[in-house]
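User: Sequence recovery, please. Input:
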């Protein structure tokens, strides 16, 4: 029996990542291939240049194919950007089945009822996440299927996005020669990779700082309570360095990645940094503390570094490392830069009956075709 294959594709502002994974008959998750490519076709998480984005996708996917030995045809892709909005909604239905027993079809009907909200014509619902169910006035129910009642209510968290933003992602993936089997909000995907159920129950905030956006997801009682996407992230740090030191953007990015500290006590190496001058000017020389003093104010704003976040928030903080895999290229993905991509894969593996593509014959199952057609339909409506 061939293992089931899932591919996650994270199309970010500064990088595109692809992760190929499988689940064997024993339920173990294996990382088969990883690919990464620079990305310069997006701004604040939204596609602004289709051709550049397509080339970045093809490069990352090609690398993942080479390392996994698998021809990739279908991917689960993440969506983010400052166009993402979320709000709470509530729905209610009557139960009229045999002995008033609540079925899965009743729950599905209730979820559809919660979607009956007024949205601008350019926005569509990406996710509807149940927070709690209420049966005949009794709240706090997490799974109502099989219980008895005559009135079923639900509080849900609805996440929406711009049709055009999702449509452009779809176009880029399609032009790269791939199909989309599912589209997932990126902070939600990241939570699958770095948070366990105990943390979600107690209450935790996930802050995913990318190149163009900072994504926030707040969990409590094992469900998501709040999401937001803020257009302030790593690129602003690079721009601060560029302006503060009077260097090129490429030089500023290298300084940030190779020598940057956002927490002054972490700077222990006093050796000065020397970079070439611009336009025939003499080389620039400065110490790492000056660089840290430029980075620190911006990082205090977006809480990327653990020590800073702990001081500002006054709460325990931990850097999220992707997990959940037991074999294959596990060490290669144990890095925060792969959190979203790994989370997309885990989302697919946990919903494999809906999203898995058969790579042996290149054909998707009927359930996937229905999902794909349903998702594609709201791209075509605009």
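Assistant: Recovered sequence (382 residues):
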């Amino acid at each position: 029996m061939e293992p089931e294959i899932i591919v996650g594709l994270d199309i970010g502002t500064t990088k595109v990542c692809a992760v190929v994974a499988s689940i064997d008959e024993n339920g173990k998750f294996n990382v088969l291939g990883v690919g990464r490519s620079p990305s310069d076709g997006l701004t604040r998480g939204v596609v602004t240049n289709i051709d550049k984005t397509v080339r970045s996708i093809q490069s990352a996917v090609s690398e993942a194919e080479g390392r996994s030995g698998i021809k990739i045809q279908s991917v689960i892709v993440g969506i983010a950007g400052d166009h993402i909005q979320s709000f709470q909604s509530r729905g209610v239905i009557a139960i009229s089945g045999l002995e008033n027993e609540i079925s899965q079809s009743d729950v599905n009907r209730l979820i559809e009822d919660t979607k009956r909200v007024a949205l601008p014509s350019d926005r569509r619902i990406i996710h509807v996440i149940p927070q709690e169910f209420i049966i005949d006035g009794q709240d706090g129910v997490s799974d109502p299927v099989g219980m008895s009642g005559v009135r079923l209510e639900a509080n849900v968290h609805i996440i929406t996005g711009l049709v055009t933003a999702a449509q452009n992602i779809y176009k880029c993936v399609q032009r790269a020669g791939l199909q989309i089997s599912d589209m997932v909000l990126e902070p939600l995907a990241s939570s699958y990779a770095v948070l366990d159920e105990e943390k979600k129950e107690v209450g935790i905030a996930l802050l995913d700082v990318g190149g163009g956006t900072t994504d926030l997801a707040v969990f409590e009682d094992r469900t998501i309570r709040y999401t937001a996407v803020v257009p302030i992230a790593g690129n602003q740090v690079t721009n601060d360095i560029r302006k503060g030191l009077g260097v090129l953007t490429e030089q500023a990015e290298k300084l940030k990645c190779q020598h940057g500290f956002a927490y002054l006590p972490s700077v222990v190496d006093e050796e000065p940094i020397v970079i070439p001058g611009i336009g025939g000017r003499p080389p620039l020389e400065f110490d790492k503390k000056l660089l840290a003093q430029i980075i620190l104010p911006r990082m205090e704003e977006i809480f990327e570094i653990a020590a800073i976040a702990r001081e500002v928030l006054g709460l325990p903080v931990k850097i999220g490392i992707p997990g959940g895999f037991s074999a294959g290229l596990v060490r290669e993905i144990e890095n925060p830069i792969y959190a979203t991509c790994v989370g997309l894969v885990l989302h697919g593996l946990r919903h494999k009956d809906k999203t898995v593509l058969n790579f042996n014959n290149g054909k998707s199952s009927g359930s996937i075709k229905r999902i794909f057609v349903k998702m594609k339909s709201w791209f075509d409506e605009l």
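DSSP finds 13 helices and 19 strands in the chain.
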